[in-house]
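Marked as duplicate of an earlier ticket. Keeping the data here for the record.
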Amino acid sequence: MQPQYIACDLGAESGRVIVGALKDGKLGLEEIHRFPNGPIRLVGTMRWNLLGIFAELKKALSMVGARGVEPRALSVDSWGVDYAYFCKNAPLLTPPFHYRDGRTESAFPQALARVKRDEIFDQTGIQFMRFNTIYQLFDDLTTQPEIVHVADRFLCIADYLNYLFSGRDVAERSLASTTQLYDPQAKVWSKKLIKALGLREAIFPDIVDSGTLLGTLLPDVAVETGLPLDTAVAACPTHDTASAVAAVPGEGENWAFLSSGTWSLLGVELASPIISNETLEKNFTNEIGHGGTVRFLKNIVGLWILQECRRCWLGSGQDLSYDAIEAAATTAEPFRSLIHPNHSQFMKPGDMPSRIQEFCRESEQPVPETVGQFSRCIMESLALLYAQTLAEASSLAKRQIDCLHIVGGGCKNRTLNQFTADACGIEVLAGPVEATAAGNLLVQAIACRDVSDLTEVRSIVRNSFQLEAFAPGNSRMWEKAKATFAKLPCS
């Protein structure tokens, strides 16, 4: 019988449950259930409906169980930084905050007043973003000390859901590394930072490697879903980008990856972290991947800007699909106006079209008015930022990059793929779309000894999914646009 696994893949906009089957060196995927995800407004705060997510996952597992499927394992992956508190007598102490909640606007500078930036970076090698777990936990000390006091543990989102399935409360290494409290050189939590910020050391869970089997399904979950009691729960790379990068179909060393979705994460895979003043200055990050690899990358705001524009357009009665938005971009005037996607004014939810217009006015550029002008502006700007970031990564890692692999939902945007190839001046290979689920499933296969290692994982991905190639062109136009982009304000 061909081995089967279940990936529970959670994104900031949606969640999906996918069954994967291995046969003849190929991975077949079947989506069982997809559901919307996003923040809920609760007494002036932005939270995650974590119990609602858990219910959707169990609903999907019941659909798998009803088919008589007997998977070897399941695992959950999710975005990073956010977390849940729990204790022995209370499985969830408070609805987890959403990383876009504004609560860390004051906590971030207050924490940096306690510990210097270079000290934090020297300990963690992680990019500074105000919503990192370290600043959220620091904020909890003053805004909800009663929760912190009674909590036995905190767990990041995917690790928490794996706990609800298995009963084992541990942190998987890739997700732990996103907290900015993990020391990638000592490979443990940074006790120095925990002490300096006054955090409770007792709430920090033990850390395990990706590919660790956590146990089997709890009896009540097995009964409720109809899955076999001996179904294993595995810690895949529980950070979604780590799972996606595990499934990048790269060969050799001279390639880079771009995990494209709500966030764009662009970088290279290394054997060890790069922690230096130059890395700090360029705001790169050293997150952990499967097998102790390092994802040396930069977080870029990504398609979030386009998603927020679409949300506003839908609210005004314009019924626009992403395909229609992309088509409008292809007919709009090239390089009419540009933005810097990582500018702080594009980070928060709200009227994104108005913010783009404001940015263009302030930078003395034509103001976008049509859907095509907005979408072309966003896509060209993202491509230019990708090119800038790729050049920085190549320089810092001292590695020549000949090919950029784009994976994730954003790789369906063929226009952005072509713009990226043009801006970067190298070949772009797009696919697979479901890289995160594929990486999740195939690391489970490693845990169950059906697959040997990351090299075999990538061979399976190349055999299983068709990639689309985009060759670079229009170099003169893009070089001119790079000069314009370099002058734009970026913070």
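See parent ticket for discussion. The mean pLDDT is 97.
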